[in-house]
Predict the 3D structure of the following.
Amino acid sequence: MNDHPSVETFRTSLGGQVYQIPLEVFPGFWAFVYLVLVDGYTVLIDTGSGYGNSNDHLEAGFNAASEIQGREISLASLSHVLITHGHIDHFGGLTYVRPRTQARLGIHELDRRILTNYEERRAVVSLDMERFLIEAGVSGSRLERLLDLYNISKGLFHSVAVDFTYESEGMRLGPFDFLHVPGHCAGHVVIRLHDILFSGDHVLEGISPHQAPERLTLSTGLGHYFQSLEALRPWAVQVRLTLGGHKKPVTDLPARLDAIRALHNDRLEEVLNFLGEPHTIAEVSRHLFGEVHGYNVLLALEEAGAHVEYLYQRGQLGIENLADLKNGSGPGQIWYRRQGTGRQD
């Protein structure tokens, strides 16, 4: 994406107008939100992060859409704000958007508390993240740095009220249909309007959406993600175009679902082979992704943890240092080994 990406326009099979608005949600990291005009609805799908230039880019996108429409469209014009999932690069802009609109705000039940009880949620997950990192084999100053990175942008948001949840509306709002696809996030939904699908981060072009272990948040994890990929297949054959929260549009959704599943299958096999000898999740992460830096260290650890957890849940891995964990007074690093390769006493 270039330094000044432009707003792109799309039209559904039944005349819905879609404006794809690019936002720099974190330095050097871009995302898309969508302004949708259809059947009297003026809908914003996701809001960006609210960080840095994100809000300015959101306003610039509305200005561009207004020029194309030949009439003013602003945050005050919105009828609804729909959040695809509870990750801050998709909902963080609500602290800017909410005071400027009377639009009804919707999210899935399983992500509702992220918006309405944000401070509580942040505190609880930070504790869970610390334990996960210790068990993954991270300690000392590196542990402190990663926890600081994890929290660095999260203090910008505060709790906001939610007007409705998708299940309370029967997973439908006017011409918009919702499908719950947990995995990448507990309350993730994809949204279908006629022959266009707004996929959030559930399906992206060219990359596999980030995975984290379910032990950090229930209804996430690789097992739920695989189930959600399959749940989307009946819709996939009806969709002409898939617009994600990042990357280019997907034009062949069934093929993209196959490619994502194949990538994870290969990664699971690689993890299983690597754990023929005992290793921590941190070592699995370095084996899979090499040396990474900054926030990518956390992402790599979570991704490795999701794959280790999936194999462990299904009995393909065991804990090598179980006796040490039993004798310890608190969380300690865990060494995993492929079942059937350890010493038989």
About this structure: Residues 62 and 74 are 6 Å apart (CA to CA). The first strand starts at residue 8 and ends at 11.
